[in-house]
Amino acid sequence: MAVSVLRPVIEPGSRTIIIADLNGNDEAFTRLLAKIGYTKKDTLFILGNLVEEGPDSLRTLRHVMELANSNPVYTVLGNRDVICKELLRNDRNDELLRYVLSRKSGLIYDMCKNSDITLRPDTNMFFVKQSLRVLYEREIAFVCALPHIIETDSFLMAHAQIYPGKPENMNPTEVIRADAFLDKGFSFDKYVIVGHWPVMLYDRTQRDANPLFNHQRRIICMNGGISQKRDGQLNALIVRNGDLKNCEVVYEDSLPKGIVRNSQPSGEFSHTICSPDNVVIPLSVVNDFTYCKQDKTDRNFWIPTSFLTEKDGVRYSDDITDYQIAVTMGDMVSVIAATSRGYLIKKDGITGWYYGMMDMTGTSAG
After folding, report:
1. pTM above 0.85, yes or no
2. Is 103 part of any domain?
3. Are 284 and 346 found together in one domain?
4. What is the separation of C-alpha 281 from the centre of its chain, rounded to a whole number of angstroms?
5. Mind listing the pLDDT tens digit for each residue in 79-116?
6. Does the residue 99 lie in any domain?
7. Average pLDDT along the chain
8. Alpha helices by DSSP H, the chain
């Protein structure tokens, strides 16, 4: 299979909007479009992974299809989107059934639920596939027609990575699946914009979910981890006249909002725990926290017990930081967790701990 490259024509003077991985979160997508004042005059690009991670894969896919039906909307194929192509295979039926049942979410799960198809461990997935091919012919065709790469006069866009040189020479799997693209040392003559790898994983000292710009190497990484991380967000760039150095960044996280009633300075030092270095050793428990040692670094952390999971006798922590974030009285922040020791919050895309009083606003608007 060859890499497909789409080269659309952008109307002069129109806004270019680039949105990172939607990850099946139609609520965040809808809120973000409203926040940026999206209209049919804008040219919208989406970095793939429309489905799977979040709660509304089918609804998200249909929302994108509806927009693309009448507006200049272009989407690249993501590694999660290829789940749709599994419906066209006649083999791997048992593997697919186990995958869907283990998650109880995602595109195929949503399709079955929407069509009153009940999945059980003994379900014949071959016959389910035949039904879904007919019921969701339009959705399957839309995903299968998505290009791997989009190129304009100002940038190249792919889900995970692009190599320097001619993009058509790449392997499709390399385009849609690659971790830590920015760490590979590539530089480009034209801006390359990717998603896939959550941007907060690049820095182990601070959790920053905002788009990551490297103007010297002409690379922009955008996946804010919506539906993937507790503190994830859906990022958008608003670009005018192809100027990526002066574009506007807007995000939506759909987390509850609160107003801080006390100011606090930032802490001097911080560290984060994140996958794949998230194996921890519990040492003691006090109220809703567990004192743990990070196996990889031997650092000790107080971690909300609700952030801990166990598999095969090994304890893992959700992504967490010990950073004390600077806030000013009256700041509105996103509230990730309320605990006996304080609030884990996000301000301007950065996650940290706040130890003062909080007024919850009762809204989840970002």
Report:
1. yes
2. no
3. yes
4. 28
5. 999 999 999 999 999 999 999 999 989 999 999 999 99
6. no
7. 94
8. 26-35, 57-70, 93-103, 107-114, 125-135, 137-144, 172-176
The dihedral sign for the CA sequence 265, 269, 275, 278: negative
Q: Which of 220, 252, 284 is the last residue of a domain?
A: 252
For 365, phi then psi, to 5°, come to: -65, 135
∠ CA 194-199-202, rounded to 5°: 115
For residue 63, the domain's CATH number is 3.60.21.10
Tokens of 163: 């190599």
In tens, the pLDDT along 49-76 reads 999 999 999 999 999 999 999 999 999 9
Q: Cα separation of 157 and 76, whole Å?
A: 8
Residue 300 CA to residue 148 CA, distance in Å, equals: 43
* Number of domains comprising the chain: 2
Query: Which structural domain, as residue segments, surrounds residue 62?
Result: 5-78+146-252
DSSP state at residue 165: S
| 185 burial level (CB within 10 Å; 0-12, 13-18, 19+) | exposed
Q: How many Å is the maximal CA-CA distance in the chain?
A: 61
Residues ≥6 apart with Cβ < 8 Å to 140 = 84, 85, 87, 88, 132, 133
Residue 266 and residue 297 in one domain:
yes
Reported in sequence order, the residue ranges of 195-323 that DSSP labels E, i.e. its strands, are 207-208, 212-214, 219-221, 234-239, 248-252, 257-260, 272-273, 279-286, 289-294, 300-304, 308-311, 314-317, 320-321
The answer to whether residue 228 scores a pLDDT higher than 80 is yes
Give a yes or no: residue 112 inside a domain: no
Q: Which two tokens stand for residue 245?
A: 């150095």
In the structure encoding, which two tokens stand for residue 104, read together?
């109880």
182: Cβ contacts below 8 Å, ≥ 6 apart: 197, 202, 212, 214, 219, 221
Same domain, 230 and 271: no
Is 241 in the same domain as 343?
no
Task: Tell me if 120 is assigned to some domain.
Answer: no
In the numeric block, which tokens belong to residue 310? Answer: 């166990």
